[in-house]
Amino acid sequence: MIKNEDIVDDLNELVKINNDRIQGYLKAVEDTEDSQLDHLFNEMIVQSQNFRSQLADHIVRIDGTAVSDTTSTDVGSKIHRAWIDIKSAVTGKDRDTVLSSVTFGENAAVEAYESAIENDKLPAYIKEDLTKQLSELKAAREKMDALKESK
């Protein structure tokens, strides 16, 4: 059986990813002049806040301590780099560039969730919630892709 500490570490990584995602979208909302994107990005912020809350609940339930709402992934991580790219891209306020960067960040988040779900030792109830969150992340990515293609 996997130790609770290992599960807590894995879940805290997903909390950090959602923190990065929130920060990336906050920057995108701040810098975009496109009301359609502004609305969508605000939805993604709320989505990540909800994900983060669910993850923290799981962590507490298995006697762990969740990282803070402001903790980010390590500077060297792929997720952090993805959201840094978003933060840089939105300064130009170019819709296509912003959407490409956001899609890149969404892809990185999807990969992180897929990796976490592959852990056979996760309790079924946690895996079920992660699978639901992953499904929502994939739907968000599809929205971004559709917006990129509908110039």
From TrEMBL:
SUPFAM superfamilies: Ferritin-like
InterPro entries: CHP02284, DUF2383, Ferritin-like, Ferritin-like_SF
Protein name: PA2169 family four-helix-bundle protein
Top-level taxon of the source organism: Bacteria
Coiled-coil features, chain-numbered ranges: none
Domain DUF2383: 6-118
